[in-house]
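Appendix B, record 7
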Amino acid sequence: MLLVSFVASSVLAGPTTVTIKVDVLQRDAKGKYWDIRRGSPDIAICVTYPDFERSDTKYTQCWPHRKAGTITTRMEKLRKPQCRNSYRCTFKKIVVPDNVKFEVMVVDIDRFRHDMIGSGFCKVNKRCKIGRAQIEVRKAGAIKPRKVKTRTKSK
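Structure tokens (predicted):
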């Protein structure tokens, strides 16, 4: 007799590519503006999730990367934002696990000390409140294209 058992929690989620849209509130938790002179934040993100090959380790990746072709793995190493002086930012081609929660950190990049906008968990195809930000995570193929009206020449 053959006995087969499956443990759902031990099955790792496969990777999928998503777009993450970030909307940041105008002021931080203390009611202050993000930057001097009523400045808006300079947005970057870090995503942490279980390693796809080894379930006992976690993997962190931050965007934007410091240099083309390299991977930034710590928030402290971020030097430039994806979106400068903006309350909205879109991050494309982000790889995350498909069917489990992963952690997202939204960061205001500053010259000397970055400000944490928020940190929390989200899943693919969900909207989540992350501190002073709201994020929307959508599969790259799930974003609906706009319909474009075209004119046809009449003869």
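Remarks on this record: Residues 13-141 form a domain with the Immunoglobulin-like fold (CATH 2.60.40). The chain has no helices and eight strands.
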